């Protein structure tokens, strides 16, 4: 048995849809694994890595997502996010540079409003950086 996953971008564009074996969501309280016959759940998503194990090949497909929600019900997962990016599309050099620049900007800024914006940028850059670092360790 498989899970049907649909990743949608706000307002209503389907980014990716497939049958999968397993999903690991970046929720607001940490990672959440989803397998077939999971109890119904609605959870908030944080900016981070969304991992999906393909049903046909058992390979992992990785996405960088920026906030949203996930609904799990009757072996269907609907993910609604503001932004999504295939892990395979992430440029290693750009990810590393953006991570370092956003980290410095966040640490050196004292304006509370600006710090909130910089934190969002940092979380996205960190997720992309984690992705390229894990790819380096695997390869």
Outline of the structure:
Helices cover 32% and strands 43% of the residues. It is α+β, with helices and mostly antiparallel strands and 139 residues long.
Offer a few descriptive terms.
2 helices; nine-stranded mixed β-sheet; 139 residues; alpha+beta; 2 domains; ATP Synthase, domain 1; 9 strands; 43% strand; single chain
CATH superfamily of the largest domain: F0F1 ATP synthase delta/epsilon subunit, N-terminal
DSSP helical segment count: 2
Q: How large, in whole angstroms, is the Cα Rg? A: 16 Å
Helix/strand class: alpha+beta
Number of domains: 2
Q: Kindly identify the CATH topology of the largest domain.
A: ATP Synthase, domain 1
Largest sheet: 9 strands, mixed
Mean pLDDT, to the nearest integer, reads 93
Supply the CATH architecture of the largest domain. Sandwich
Outline the low-pLDDT stretches.
Answer: none
CATH classification class of the largest domain? Mainly Beta
Helix content: 25-40%
Q: What general outline do the C-alpha atoms trace?
A: globular
Order of helices and strands: EEEEEEEEEHH
Task: State the end-to-end CA separation.
Answer: 31 Å
Count of distinct strands: 9
Proportion of β residues?
A: 35-45%
